[in-house]
Amino acid sequence: MPRKGEQFAGLTVALVTPFRDGAVDEGRLKSNVDWQVEQGTAGLAPCGTTGESPTLSHAEHERVIDLVCTRAAGRLNVVAGTGSNSTAEAVRLTKSAQRSGADAALMVAPYYNKPTQEGFYQHFAAVADACDLPIVLYNIPGRTGKNIEPDTICRLAELTTIVAVKESTGDLDQASAIAVGSDLTILSGDDSLTLPILSVGGSGAVSVAGNIVPAELTAMIDAYRAGDPAEALQRHAKLFPLCRALLGLSSNPIPLKAAMARLGKDTGEVRLPLVELDAALKPRLEQALKDYGLL
């Protein structure tokens, strides 16, 4: 069936928020956006998990989205992270992102309060009713504490402005159920599972590894969608160890920021309660970067 949200297919990069001496490094943020444009990336997602949104002040959150929208305008999509465990706050952030020129909102499931399935539905429906910006649901129960069940996601898909889902459950049955039961565009939220999710009906990814290897991830997605699964599998096999290192050595974005610092793309700073990558793990990250050919 034709899918809503196909304009968000392909690679969207979950942008880091660069910090320098504790403040947002706006110059580095702008240069990161420019580099992604040069790499042919389809979209950017500022202020998600990778962007350390829980530690951004409200002013910083809105400023980062505004800077990315301004820098990216007319060059690639911006899917701005506007989720909250407060429905009123999610509405406020989404309206702010729309004023800044975002193309869509990436909206994480309410965390900590652990809503019922009806609560999830009413939360997203309230934001959809208050804002006319396209919404990409973000389901990551390992971070939020509770899964948005496939039936609830398929019910939400009936709302006009809910167009896609970032699928980060690690469960291919869940992705399959959404693909069969809805017309949402499905985007992988786990880099190592992007190819498997494509194989059950996905259309792209919101990627962590895309901060350092966006062109390679785009090539894998494009190969699969162009009908060349053998090439896609070959690219997946090369990407897999790097993706596992970036997402498996420590909490995201700790390994990613360490890798970006090593590659001269960022300062590597994270904000408390995150701390820098443990020294004992750095050789493993170094080896993953070398094995991939980045060093």
For the structure shown, list the relevant keywords.
alpha/beta; diaminopimelate biosynthesis; eight-stranded parallel barrel; single chain; TIM Barrel; 12 helices; 295 residues
Domain count: 1
Q: Mind describing the biggest β-sheet?
A: 8 strands, parallel, barrel
CATH architect. name: Alpha-Beta Barrel
Strand order in space, largest sheet = 1-4-5-6-7-8-9-10
- The string of secondary-structure elements, in order, is EEEHEHEHEHEHHEHEHEHHHH
Q: What percent strand?
A: 5-15%
CATH homologous superfamily assignment:
Aldolase class I
The radius of gyration over CA amounts to 18 Å
Active site: 138, 166
Pathway: Amino-acid biosynthesis; L-lysine biosynthesis via DAP pathway; (S)-tetrahydrodipicolinate from L-aspartate: step 3/4
Protein name: 4-hydroxy-tetrahydrodipicolinate synthase
Family: Belongs to the DapA family.
Explain how this protein is built.
Pfam families: DHDPS. Pathway: Amino-acid biosynthesis; L-lysine biosynthesis via DAP pathway; (S)-tetrahydrodipicolinate from L-aspartate: step 3/4. GO terms for molecular function: 4-hydroxy-tetrahydrodipicolinate synthase activity. It catalyses: L-aspartate 4-semialdehyde + pyruvate = (2S,4S)-4-hydroxy-2,3,4,5-tetrahydrodipicolinate + H2O + H(+). It is found in: Cytoplasm. This protein is of the alpha/beta class and about 300 residues long. The chain has one domain (about 5-225): Aldolase class I (TIM Barrel, Alpha-Beta Barrel). Helices cover about 45% and strands about 15% of the residues. It has helices at about 25-40, 60-70, 85-100, 115-130, 140-145, 150-155, 170-180, 195-200, 215-225, 230-250, 255-260, 280-290; strands spanning about 10-15, 20, 25, 45, 75-80, 105-110, 135-140, 160-165, 185-190, 205. The strands form 2 sheets. An 8-stranded parallel barrel has the order 1-4-5-6-7-8-9-10, surrounded by 4 helices. The protein has a two-stranded antiparallel sheet with strand order 2-3. Helix 1 runs parallel beside helix 2 (about 60-70), helix 3 (about 85-100) packs parallel to helix 4 and helix 10 (about 230-250) packs across helix 11. The protein starts with 9 loop residues before the first strand and ends with a helix.
